Predict the 3D structure of the following.
Amino acid sequence: MNSLRQNTPSLKELKQQARQLRSETATNSAPISHSKSLEMIAHQRGFKDWNTLHASASNRPAIEKLGLGDSVSGRYLGQSFQGEVVGIRAIKPGQLYQVSIQLEKAIDVVTFDSFSNFRRRLNCAVGLDGTSPAKTSNGKPHMVLAL
C-alpha cells in the first residue's frame, strides 16, 4: 500500500526538530537562534527557506498527512474508536482514500440489543476531510476521522 506521508512531516514535528537542533548546537558549539534552526531544517529538507517549508507542510489536506503507524480516532457506525493506521492508499488521488485502522479496543458495530458484531480492524473509504461518502440508513457517514 502507498503511504501518503510525503517527505514533509507536520509543522509540529518540524518545529520539534528545530528545537532539538538548537539545543544540540548550544551544547556542542556556538548557540544559534530559533529562526536560524528553522532555516537550517528547511535547507536540510531541500527547501529554499522556512516559509517555503512551512507552506508545503501546512497546505496538504489532513488525510494526506496520515501515515502508517499514526494514531487516529473517530467514529465508525456511531461508535467512538481509537487505533493505529495500518494501511492507506489513494483510490482517487486528491479525492478518496482507503484507510485500514487496527483498533486499540474492539467496538460493537451493531445497534441491535439481541445481536453483536465486534471489530478490531476497520477498512473504509474516506474523503479529504476524513469522512466517508457512504452513509447509514439514518444519513450519517460510516466513518468520521478526527483529523
